[in-house]
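User: Continuing from earlier, I have the next pair ready.

Assistant: Great, send them over.

User: Here they are, in order.

Assistant: Folding the first of the pair now:
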Amino acid sequence: MDTEDHKALREAVAALGKRHGREGDTEQLWSDAGKLGYLGVNLPETYGGGGGGIAELSIVLEELGAAGCPLLMLVVSPAICGTVIARFGTEEQKQQWLPGLSDGTRRMAFGITEPDAGSNSHRITTTARKDGTDWLLTGRKVFISGVDIADATLIVGRTEDARTGRLKPCLFIVPRDTPGFTRRPIDMELNAAEKQFELVLDDVRLPAGALVGDEDAGLLQLFAGLNPERVMTAAFAIGMGRHALAKAIEYARDRTVWNTPIGAHQAIAHPLAQAHIDLELARLMMQKAAARYDAGDDLGAGEAANMAKYAAGEACVKAVDQAVHTLGGNGLTREYGLARLITAARVARIAPVSREMILNYVSHQTLGLPKSY
């Protein structure tokens, strides 16, 4: 359940989203949200943030999505990168990045996915090796959002453990214009303000201060960013589903056939009611995941965040599909803005981890069943 502060935050962000709407300028919305303090609600007050957590940031993204203007970079910049730097960064890194991430004047992208490894941190081939006090980073990344508008990208690489010789994950801050760091846009059917890129890192030289946190912390630091990512993806999906459902409900109330609003027919009303129930249930799991993460329960948050992302992705796809179906031919017109959501809704099922991998996680980690791989 929302606290009074959360209700007030929802109302304020919803009002901002309504002012901008689905046809608004994404850059202007980002700037306005930053000035109002919404982009950094999860970051420490010491560095210009709101002092809240992922619970508050997920409200911001959900309400903007419900208004038809979700900000995808909220998933990446303050949620993943901001969280990792706030928890594990050096004092210099915190001072350099967190104030800008909080007010929106700086943005960071996040690079983990690779062509042959997906998001499997154990198969990542981007490697970092020491050269004096510097690091040399080499590898490729794919499907990285917003690199062109980000001041830097937090890259997941692997370094060799001096004791075991095994490769372990590490995170590096790579400024956008660093020599050897190049990007190529990926031609996507998805119509989104934030573009997708393939990255190439060719012996990118980084100073020692580019390494975030402890070289030996490995997976702990990585999952400190991935759990919020899943919570925020759930918020993205729930907001989108709510937006589609609201459009369908309005249409079903107003559209009259044979002197009766179509929403009076159970064949129309019941599927919309079911979509609403599914979205509300997904939100409850999202709130549980955010609460556990903000309380410092990383293990419990991992399970809940995966479940929330799964539930929200399924609920979103069903809500969008039912909304389009409710409007019939009008659901495919530009006027109503629902057709574009058919593609966008699939993202919540696919990224940042597929629903099948979440089912694997629950099978292994929660139910204790043997692995299939």
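And the other member of the pair:
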Amino acid sequence: MQIPGGRDGRRMLAVTFVDKAGSGLWGATAALYFTYVAGLSTAEIGLLLGVSGAVGIAGPPLGGLLADRVPLRPLLAAVQALRAVASLALLTTTDLRLLLAVTAAGSLGDRASSVLTKLYATRVAGPDRSRYQAVNRTVSNVGWAVGGLVAAAALSTGTTAVYRWLLTGDALSFAAIALLTLRCGEPPSPSQVVATGGTGAGAGTPAAGEGTPAPGPNPWRDRRYLAYTATDAILFLDDSVFNVGLALWAVTATTLPHQAVPLLLVLNNVLVVCFQVPFARFGKTPAKARSTLFPLAVAFLAGGAALAASATGTRWLAATALTLAAVAFTVAEMLHATVSWELSVALAPPTAQGAYLGVHGLAQAAQRSAGPLVVTGAIATGPLGWLGLGTGLAVMCLAQRRLTRDDDETAMSVPRITVSEH
């Protein structure tokens, strides 16, 4: 299979795999490490994760802003190195105050890394960015699965030392991807292309004496892009449905056996690995991405209705309804990932691409903070809560389609320029 972006595109996929495999090692064991190794209470762990998550919200806009002003490759490598240092530093202390500082720094680097990696892929893949995003998500899911399986096998030893080794593996994965990133080439920057007026192969680099390109448009003053980001934050709720809602609803409101719940998450992972790349065609252009918001609305509505239906009837009916809900929300996840990637880039002016994508990164950050509250609220309301959530997400899809209705008819935020054209 041909990978968009050539050699650098393939290397960045390797970065994604190693990154997610390392994160899989730590993500499944973080709470256990802080409990059994650091000796923190449940309240202290909640404070630790809450503060680090709040600090991490600043990562996407800060990383995106810097990416428009400095070379992207060394910036991304530096952020990966920060994540490695923060992970290793966790091994050196059990003091809550120091752990707060270290986890906050790591969260800041993690969120910044996410938007910078997306920006690199956008620049290196050019008009094939939608397909590259699909391949990248597939590799990401495989990496998470590998890391999670290794962590599960390691935890079977039953010793506290294994938590330190898993954290060390996570830190080493960040160090490895920093080195891999430095082996990649610097992608052409649209802001530098516009600033220099270059059109040749070297247009991505300012001419001698021209200095840093002037700052582009300010995303914080672009009301349409801010509105788009706000709607996207709501559509990212499919993440909380899988991470929080599906399992909690299944064990508290349905007759499905508890041991069958993990199979729903496995189903999600398998479907993403198998179908995310074919789904890339739904976001090949801004016009296709916009039209895909209709089936996305249907998928959200079907998922909410299936979860509502799972609370009634026999065990087999519950199992069938929950399976349909998992499939519907997985389809929604894949469609939304494709649409969001394309529209967030297409709506961003080329002279401020990093700053705009940094602001869009707040959509996922906000969802991670508020999403669990929304989903647990739907669970507390009962079947009508899931119907309301599914309907609300469907309505938001239609609202987003209206918000972006002139994408393929006029200019985006500014006249459209893609890196590949230069």
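Worth noting for the second one:
The mean pLDDT is 83. DSSP finds 17 helices and no strands in the chain.
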